[in-house]
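TA notes, week 10

Several of you asked for a full example with nothing omitted. So below is the full record: structure tokens for the whole chain, then the designed sequence directly under it. When grading your own attempts, check the secondary structure regions first.
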């Protein structure tokens, strides 16, 4: 069975930085001291009979602690990840500016085999990043999502 995930890639254009995208650093001990290839679009899994955009908006809110902006979203496409998971990615232009990020959490035994279970945030940071920075920070399987956005927006 294919695991499906849906996410949102917000973007904005500024006079100083140009195109920027909203990306999130994955939480938990595995990602704690990593930066390159440790960021993601806000996303999460959904059931086959669930509307992907509705799932993407729900997951955004769970990971950011605030609702996804009330703007018009468009489908960038479906992107197969190295794990086999398929991400349905939606994009929208927004000047999203939350006062703080308060992600939902997950429980994990860490260190593995220690018997110590702790709660960690799914997302521990999120920022606006330029295209160049996002290409370095995003996990490799999600760079095609950024490429699709660039193609959709056309020449700058």
């Amino acid at each position: 069975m294919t695991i499906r995930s849906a996410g949102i890639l917000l973007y904005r254009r500024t006079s100083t930085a140009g195109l920027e995208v909203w990306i999130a650093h994955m939480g938990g001990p595995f990602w704690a001291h990593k930066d390159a290839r440790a960021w993601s679009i806000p996303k999460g899994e959904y059931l086959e009979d669930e509307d992907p955009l509705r799932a993407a908006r729900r997951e955004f809110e769970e990971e950011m602690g605030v609702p996804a902006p009330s703007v018009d979203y468009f489908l960038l496409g479906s992107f197969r990840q190295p794990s086999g998971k398929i991400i349905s990615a939606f994009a929208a232009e927004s000047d999203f500016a939350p006062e703080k990020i308060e992600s939902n959490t997950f429980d994990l035994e860490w260190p593995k085999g220690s018997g110590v279970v702790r709660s960690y945030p799914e997302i521990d940071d999120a920022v606006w990043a330029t295209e160049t920075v996002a290409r370095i920070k995003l996990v490799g399987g999600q760079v095609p999502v950024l490429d699709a956005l660039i193609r959709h927006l056309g020449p700058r």
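The CA atoms of residues 6 and 53 lie 7 Å apart. Use that as a sanity check on your answer.
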